[in-house]
User: Fold these one by one.
Assistant:
Number 1:
Amino acid sequence: MSLELKNVEKKVGIETHIYPTNIKLEKNTINVLLGSTLAGKTTLMQIMAGLDKPTSGEIWFNGENVTGKQVQKRNVSMVYQQFINYPSFTVFENIASPLKIIGVNSDEIKERVGKVAELLKLSAMLNKKPDELSGGQQQRTALARALVKDSDLILLDEPLANLDFKLREELREELPKLFEDRECIVVYATTEPSDALMIGGNTATILEGKIIQYGKTLDVYNKPENLTSAKVFSDPPMNIAEISKSGDTCKLTDNSVQWKSNVKIKDGNYKIGIRPHNITTYKEGNNTVEINGKVLISELSGSESLIHFTNGNLNWVSLSNGIQQKNIGENTKLFMNVDEFLYFDENNRLVNHG
Amino acid sequence: MNKTINQKAWFFVVPVFVLVAFNAAIPLMTVVNYSFQETFGNNVFAWEGTRWFKQILLSERFHDALGRQIAFTFIILLIQIPLGIGIALTMPKKGWGVPVCLILMSMPLLIPWNVVGAMWNIFALPDIGFLGYSLNAIGFDFNFTQQPGDAWFTTILMDVWHWTSLVVLLSYAGLNSIQPAYYQAAEIDGASRWATFRYIELPKMKKVLTLAILLRFMDSFMIYTEPFVLTGGGPGNATAFLSIDLVKMALGQFDLGPAAAMSLIYFFIVLLVCWVFYSLMMKNEVRS
């Protein structure tokens, strides 16, 4: 089982929504489409599902060309950001609806709905109407409807975006388990890098209608092919600075910070990308370098502290564990974990890692 | 901090009290007053108790008018609601067609009621009206001023022409508030067009449709101007609906007492039907 997009392009009028795209999704994988709003995630999913036709290119499923095949005839299910359920049906009827349409007998419907409902903790609510449920339960119902059918392709379009923080965390943890022993391809669209990391599987970073990089989630995160991919997969935004390297000495081009590095790249000018959590108020890692900064903003979020500061002409973002109280305008010393720096060449391609 | 005490604010409420008193409370109380008394003019009144109410409730004339009224309202609701929903479903959802349709649909609603009556009167005249003449020309014996069936046909057609737009506009608004994802979800499920209508569109339109039915019920139940101009209640009493009959009694015969009693009964019927219908429709709705 595999889903393959071959040179798929989507234009609406003169605007290009999806640039020619090639991607192959394998059986039993969860694939995260990661990109900001309007990057083209939803369009891509609708093309995958058959809800929308590509302007050019082909979609192959299991070695069969399914371009233009109607969505009803393909075994697909989809969950949306909004909680989409039949308003006049009970939870049971909602979950059963896709089975009824394909003519499954009522004993089997009962059994399958019961199983899925239990999996999604809906057993106690089977007789309620969607209106009477909380947002989280409504989305669980929609998920159950998508799961009950044993689809070949399950598309989840930002399913957690409309939920509050607690419910989002809870459901996000459960999601990968739900698909663990299912014979299907799961596609999950999200704007949040943390979602991708939590879910694992594979990730495709998307920007402005182009897939930048596709691969194992951790690989894409640790070894972004290029600066764009690294930026898409970083929240809070990645710090980027220009450096020059000569011998084993690297320094920012304004000479404010200098460090020893054993990366095996030629001498010259590079850009470095530093994720915020690799700049901290304390030393972390074996190899750190100090950076002086003037605090712009300091935000506390429970167990983490986000400190925005300036060094030279650049604004930096750092993310430290614990509560690190800093005053605005204060001069402070932070530590960067040299081993985690990403080096990019003049074409913004990653040249080395660490 | 001390609260400033300023009773001047009450003055701002006075205009509302005066307005409501003049346009609702005082006229209504006058009617209540008349309904329990007999008057021969010159401001001479005699107490009659509930006599007029009994008389009206038992009179055949009232029963007939009420029967005609119920039949009329029932028929136009039966036509206008499905027709309105049907038209709303076929209207375009985007593009230049939207404003065109919306303007065309609102046209009948903007025409004054007596103009509608006059228009249809002329339109349906068997000798010179386009509708009446055409119907006769193709072989129907059509004359709405003399044949009760034709009078009903014309009145109903006029009301459908005048008011279906309201149902269309309300249904259209209801349909447009449904997120596209619902249709996609139905498509993925493989739901038929009918199932999509029955299980997505109709439940999502429930509230606007309730409103549309209530508005059309009240308006048609109290209809006066259009049939008055079109048929004047005739031929005979064939299209004398409740309001027409009421005005005949009050102004034609100057029976103020019975007319007042009839007004109140009429008023309570409308109130009761609306209340029962609304309660039934909203019984299962969750309050949000």
Number 2:
Amino acid sequence: MKALIAIAALAAAPAQAEEISAATIAQGRQIYASTCAACHGADLQGQPDWKRRLVTGRMPAPPHDVSGHTWHHSDRDLFNLTKFGVAAVMGQGYESDMPGFAGKLSDAEIRAVLDYIESTWPARARDAQARITAADAAAQP
Amino acid sequence: MTFSGFPALSRRRLLVGLGAAALGSGGPPGLMRAVAGTPSGRPAGTVTALAFDQGKLLAAAAGLWISGDAGASFAPHGPGPGAAVTALATHPDLAGVIYAATLAGLARSDDAGLTWHSAGPGLPASPLDAVAIAAHDPQTVYVAVRGDGLWQSSDGARSWDFAMDRPLADQVEVDVQALASVGSLSGMGGYWVFAGTTRGVSKVPDCFCRWSSLEDTGAMQVSGDEAGAARIDPARRLPHLAVVSLALAPSVPEVLFAGLPSGIWKTTDGGSSWAAVGPAMAAPILAVDPLDPDHVVAADAGGALLSSRDGGATWADLTAA
């Protein structure tokens, strides 16, 4: 059922604007600090030793800076992971501490957070992530 | 760990000593004669790893063995890296470079296996069960550290970083016994790394965000992909049994071979569906010639040594000659 919710979200995921305003990035930074930083780190650094499982068997919160793998995911995937949570998007019994923020953050607020995160990446990572996003969009029916 | 040197030993004594050390006291009768150069034409002892380098077939058994005639005959090729070899890795763009995962760490040869040096600075001091060279970048190397996880080097094994914990199977971490870099796009700006585990095959994108099962398809396995996986005939899925070997030619990433307790399995669609090929073998070790993706060689602990020149459709017994 959760996976079906995710499917519906794909169609509803907003398209990324061509130009991101400084105000949007500032808004995203503020929301990140209040909503995301507790797990992903104030400086986007993730939880310590984030590549090794917690005692619960779940993976720690990864960094969102360029040392992590966030920039390897398309905008569509990042939006859905944030809105619906990792477990709902992955399905198949995958367990994660990352909740969905649907009902807590609007789509625009989620997008602002992602815009802020992406604004911190070096050009190489931003360009690579843009290519991944474009390829993902082209692959959608 | 020492992989080279031994200046005080003659070559003959070195071959005997290291061959015996690699197998311990359980080596087969005749080991020392064969390793010392008796022209048996077959690798002495159990073959624990196979690889092709520049069209020649390498076999790790008691020492290293080489075949220039596709496995019809072998000749001793030096002592190998000096510890029991669990896997070999080569790359068609790195002629003469061989990595050996061993019970004592990682070794690298730059002269087609004649001499070896340690290549694991920074790796845990634990046995390695698998090694693979990235299909798209031969300077990137992956190893599986027993009881630990995957480590990655991006500089030809001069330095290493922890990449990913071990995969989960039925909520239990399982060791990786085989690795293959599969050069098909992961959807995340990179490629896939496949891992043969004690319970089937898992895969992870080379950004190392998460392990997934082979039945998953697509980058994030969102629901539509679940439906796609469900369409796969269960009889065409790879059994969730121990996978001791994975092999493919980098130029044909959708075709992989896997060694299971029941024998050799093959996929032609990147791991979604599989079929058993060839005669029954006991957990065969496999190698595919990167210069000829239809050329597959398999060896098992029972002494079987088979070769296929047609992608696994038919097999020849190389021990029958």
